[in-house]
Amino acid sequence: MAYQLKNEQLVIEIAEPGDYRGSRFDWNGFITDVTLLDGNHSYCVPESLVPGQGTGGAGLCNEFGIKEPIGYEDAPVGGAFPKLGVGLLTRPDDREYDFSRAYPIKPFATEIEMEGTRKITFRITPEDCRGYAVAVTKSVSIDENRLTVQYLLHNTGTKPILTEEYCHNFFGIDGYPIGPNYVLKFPFELFPWADEEETLAGLIFGKGDAGEVRWDHTPKDPFYFRLPGFDGNKYPWVWELLHHPSGAGVREISRFHVSAAAVWGIGHVVSPEMFIEVKLAPGEQKTWSRVYEFFTKPD
Fold it and tell me: Would you say which domain of life the source belongs to (predicted)?
């Protein structure tokens, strides 16, 4: 069973926890589609257009601990470690953690509360794993043209928690391929870098206080670059994606310190990713929100 939020401006489709069964992305509040009724614009696309390729991402799906989940290093081979939003995963061998690898999963239990047609809340029950335990509450709500995803984490275990979270925003407006008709904007000067120089091919970076990224053609290969962290409280929004000539766009408002940022994509999708660091002593809580505005404006 899928869930839907709807008002006069937006329709949001949300998957049932367990429809996505991978060990990477949060199963809860997995947003598969966003429609802006003004112009009937759609925004969400899958990670890959090739069946079976990729890690099963689509739309707005977040992940905790992409580099290393909580407790992985001290988990014995055959033992469990928690992947927040997913469940207890099994460490099959002594290899380093790989986010793209499929791990055996014992899913966390989830309680779902639907509040009318404009808000849904997922409450994920923690399960102790060698002293690691985190209760996660995730709410998805809409107000006019804004979609808000709010997180509350509570360390109910006996060990400190250190992890990071980000949302993999798989956007491709109205299914149009990424290319010269798109522009990705940031409200600050860009200082991008990449571990592999070839992932910058075809990207055009504008200079100045308001940074822009454009494409001179539809990329056949993945592109990827990183940006330094920054304080999201300083800006009215942290990135904006606009498609010409439809005039449809989306921007993210994140009122927290962005510990790191990255942009990934390929010919059909672009995904700006804003990371937040999460540190919790036993008993501590942390809350934050991501707000998305969907809009149209003249070309």
Answer: Bacteria
Q: Greatest CA separation found in the chain?
A: 57
User: Coil, strand or helix: which one is 283?
Assistant: coil
Tally the C-alpha atoms within 13 A of residue 228's C-alpha that lie toward its C-beta: 6
pLDDT at 1: 66
Query: Tokens 């998305």 — which residue?
Result: 292
Q: 82 by DSSP, 3-state: which? A: strand
Query: Beta strand pairing status for 161-169 and 269-280?
Result: antiparallel
pLDDT of residue 207: 82
Separation of alpha carbons 241 and 82, rounded Å: 34
Which tokens in the block code for residue 135? 């209760």
The CA R_g of the chain, rounded to the nearest whole Å, is 19
Q: How open is the CA angle 174-202-188, to the nearest 5 degrees?
A: 80
Residues in the chain: 299
Question: Domain limits of the chain?
Answer: 3-296
Q: Is the pLDDT of residue 258 over 70?
A: yes
104-158 per-position pLDDT tens digit: 999 999 999 999 999 999 999 999 999 999 999 999 999 999 999 999 999 999 9
Q: Which CATH number fits domain 3-296: 1.25.40.390, 1.10.40.60, 2.70.98.10, 2.60.40.10?
A: 2.70.98.10
Residue entry with tokens 């766009």: 249
Q: Determine contact, residues 84/135, Cβ cutoff 8 Å.
A: no
Q: How far is CA 7 from CA 59, 142, 199, in A?
A: 19, 8, 39
Region 82-95 average pLDDT = 98
**Tens digits of residue pLDDT in 49-88:** 999 899 999 999 999 999 989 999 999 999 999 999 999 9
